[in-house]
Give the backbone structure.
Amino acid sequence: MIEESTSISLTHTNIRCYARVEGFVGFVVSVAHHTFQKVIANFSGCIHLRHSYGLGGTAFSLSMVWVQALPFIALQYYEGDDAEAIKIFLVCNFCLWLILNVAFFCTIDLDFIGTFFGTITAAQYAVELFQNATDDAMKFDAAFTNRISFTKPIHGEIKEWVRLNIDRWRLEAPKWFVVELVPDEFLPVEVFEAEGGERRRRSSNMSMREMAGLGVGAAGYQVQN
């Protein structure tokens, strides 16, 4: 089923981050998230920020190489008297960055080396996490702590998994099971009604409005649940 997620556009999966905020606010949050992440990675040379929920393996690795080359390219257009000193400074920084990266790759589990050159999108990664999970806690985390649209290709599979297990979860109450994270449409009818039914839906919608800064109505009064 992982192949089905390739139908989701690259723009949707890689521009929008994993945070569970949709619409225009979700777009703003995603842009801010990726901007801060990339600025930190670019200026620090930190490759630990590489993740499938971010830019992805190949694109991230290429961008890191480009960031290292860019200062030398810019230096070609600098005509100041201290150009040679700046060149020496850049060479020293590049050598230090290179040594640290060699040390990093020599000490990590080489089974993960492929993740630095992969092309899997954020949505494909979320689907893969759910389908390869070895326990319910991992499946729940993959399905309901990420952007819900990431797992759209397997929503039917997730709903069936919830239907088969939710009674046991509610009885056992494991720490990872937070029913509020499960969208209404993923709950069996009887569980949806037991959790508040339409009141639960209105409460969920209100929470999203408040998150989007729309808690105050058009007339200027505070919207109440």
About this structure: The chain has two domains: 2-116, 122-211. Residues 83-107 form the longest helix (25 residues). The CA atoms of residues 24 and 212 lie 9 Å apart.
